[in-house]
Amino acid sequence: MLGFLKPYRWHVLGALFALTFTAGVTLSMGQGLRMMIDQGFGEGAGTGLDQTIIIFMFMVMLLSIGTFARFYLVSWIGERVSADLRREVYSKVIELHPGFFETNLSGEIQSRITTDTTLLQTVIGSSVSMALRNVLLFIGGIILLLFTNPKLTAIVLISVPLVIMPIIIFGRHVRKLSRSSQDKVAVFGGFVGESLKNIKIVQAFNHQQRDRETFSTQVEAAFDVALRRIKHRAWLTSIVIALVFGAIAYMLWVGGHDVIAGRITAGELAAFIFYALMVAMSVGVISEVYSDLQRAAGATERLLELMHADNLIQAPAESQPLPENIQGELHFDEVSFFYPSRPETPAVDKLTLHLAAGSSMALVGSSGAGKSTLVDLILRFYDVTEGKILFDGIDICQLDPKQLREHIAIVPQQPVLFSNSVLENIRYGRPDATDEQVKAAAEAAYADEFIQKLPQGYDSFVGESGVRLSGGQRQRIAIARAVLKDPKLLLLDEATSALDAESEYKVQQALEHLMQDRTSIVIAHRLATVVNVDTIAVLDHGRLVDTGNHQQLLASSSLYARWASLQFGDAASDAVTIEEAS
Ligand SMILES: Nc1ncnc2c1ncn2[C@@H]1O[C@H](COP(=O)(O)OP(=O)(O)OP(=O)(O)O)[C@@H](O)[C@H]1O
């Protein structure tokens, strides 16, 4: 984590100075105490006491100023570093290949970014400074003890290793348990996220009780691990306290006899006890903080794991620039693809397809045929296992994915809206677009009319994932977003959910408008689409079975004919009749 402190080296130096300064003042207070007892009380006159109290008050003032600086600087560093860390982890995670999130739950990652960084914040912002301060007090205390009374110091020095040993032994366990406890918290964090996001399904299936039970098991598992950690820590603290105060009692006994025998003054014994207590307390604090530091080490490991996760989709070292004037031609050359979790079955199998610039193609095929996979491959969410996908003649693996995606827009089956206004949701397609451009896009997507009727028009808030809009409205916003992006290549996954006739008509019109003059691939679920595109590609088990237009395929492909009649029912044969008649 030191790398994160580097930019703030002046703050760190300032904090270290304040820390050393306050530790020094605290240590010198023991001498003040000795003066006060031996001179202030010993002489019997008030002047000695007055002077020592004035000096004492001056030291208290220095201590309070130093403490202000120390607390401020150290907390500042803690907050700053955790903010930087959060930013860094998020910006790393958001670039990771989508496959990563199939094995790592998003809720779990969320928890790492929030709870683990908060833990680090408290550790950097207080525990580290407490540890450093107490290490200084410990070392300074021992030195001053030696000065005050070497014989008694021997007792302290013998007890120190006795105290440090359990700290190290228990600390190791605490670290392991802490990591496991944070892991468990992350697991139920992920579960809460998933069930709240899908609250309607949870309630519709009356799943609350079951979810409650699952959640309860996860929470209890986290509690069990936390309990084991607490037990270790409780043992640690009580052993340390017993050892420390045992040693002090022994010292008081030996020192008390020395005072009675007149070998040392009462002030010396008081100063000695003051330092001994300081040493003891510093060991106590270090032992507490040590397990905090161990917990932080666990959190750091988890965060570093995220930061070092391999991004499987990367720009090549020397990515090829796309030409200025992109046409939008797409070619699949013997493409095969296996999902990493299913290495035996190809999701796409030796597929060769060509889409001329500006043409449109519908992908049809039964469920699981590989249509969505093909769309993901074009967007480079996954890299092909074999073969090549060429965009304007360039292998997309040779391109920076950002550059490639700049020319592609996608309208997914379930439109994705973010909790923001309608305006900003459309502007997602091109963040630098003006309000007028956004409105023009909404008009082209036949969305302007309904948006105007919303309570705050374009500024209306759509709710989380757009819950305040209907399915058809969400789709038109997603289309407007793609219109605004004005891509060379359009990827469309038509919605399967039935819209009412009017919405369906409007969405269809918006789509046709959007597809004009650009290369488009549509995962088709509607007859109107397959009839309107230039080519239809029939897929089955990841293979290309046939291509052609609607009538050609009805005649040539039994699979297509069966699929069309299942999908469109009578409408398909009607369409054929209409077209045959014409
Ligand atoms: N992330 C994944 N990991 C492993 N296998 C996957 C993954 N996504 C899809 N598959 C598998 O790949 C095959 C193709 O899936 P794909 O989603 O591309 O089909 P599809 O034609 O789009 O189907 P649908 O019309 O039902 O959406 C299926 O057998 C599916 O189970």
UniProtKB/TrEMBL annotation:
<feature type="domain" description="ABC transmembrane type-1">
    <location>
        <begin position="13"/>
        <end position="295"/>
    </location>
</feature>
<dbReference type="Pfam" id="PF00664">
    <property type="entry name" value="ABC_membrane"/>
</dbReference>
<keyword id="KW-0067">ATP-binding</keyword>
<feature type="transmembrane region" description="Helical">
    <location>
        <begin position="260"/>
        <end position="286"/>
    </location>
</feature>
<protein>
    <submittedName>
        <fullName>ABC transporter ATP-binding protein</fullName>
    </submittedName>
</protein>
<feature type="transmembrane region" description="Helical">
    <location>
        <begin position="131"/>
        <end position="148"/>
    </location>
</feature>
<dbReference type="GO" id="GO:0005524">
    <property type="term" value="F:ATP binding"/>
</dbReference>
<dbReference type="InterPro" id="IPR011918">
    <property type="entry name" value="ABC_MsbA_ATP-bd"/>
</dbReference>
<dbReference type="InterPro" id="IPR017871">
    <property type="entry name" value="ABC_transporter-like_CS"/>
</dbReference>
<dbReference type="InterPro" id="IPR027417">
    <property type="entry name" value="P-loop_NTPase"/>
</dbReference>
<dbReference type="InterPro" id="IPR003593">
    <property type="entry name" value="AAA+_ATPase"/>
</dbReference>
<dbReference type="InterPro" id="IPR039421">
    <property type="entry name" value="Type_1_exporter"/>
</dbReference>
<keyword id="KW-0812">Transmembrane</keyword>
<keyword id="KW-1133">Transmembrane helix</keyword>
<dbReference type="InterPro" id="IPR011527">
    <property type="entry name" value="ABC1_TM_dom"/>
</dbReference>
<dbReference type="InterPro" id="IPR003439">
    <property type="entry name" value="ABC_transporter-like_ATP-bd"/>
</dbReference>
<keyword id="KW-0472">Membrane</keyword>
<dbReference type="GO" id="GO:0005886">
    <property type="term" value="C:plasma membrane"/>
</dbReference>
<keyword id="KW-0547">Nucleotide-binding</keyword>
<feature type="transmembrane region" description="Helical">
    <location>
        <begin position="54"/>
        <end position="77"/>
    </location>
</feature>
<feature type="transmembrane region" description="Helical">
    <location>
        <begin position="154"/>
        <end position="174"/>
    </location>
</feature>
<feature type="domain" description="ABC transporter">
    <location>
        <begin position="330"/>
        <end position="566"/>
    </location>
</feature>
<dbReference type="Pfam" id="PF00005">
    <property type="entry name" value="ABC_tran"/>
</dbReference>
<dbReference type="InterPro" id="IPR036640">
    <property type="entry name" value="ABC1_TM_sf"/>
</dbReference>
<dbReference type="GO" id="GO:0015421">
    <property type="term" value="F:ABC-type oligopeptide transporter activity"/>
</dbReference>
<dbReference type="GO" id="GO:0016887">
    <property type="term" value="F:ATP hydrolysis activity"/>
</dbReference>
<dbReference type="GO" id="GO:0090374">
    <property type="term" value="P:oligopeptide export from mitochondrion"/>
</dbReference>
<feature type="transmembrane region" description="Helical">
    <location>
        <begin position="234"/>
        <end position="254"/>
    </location>
</feature>
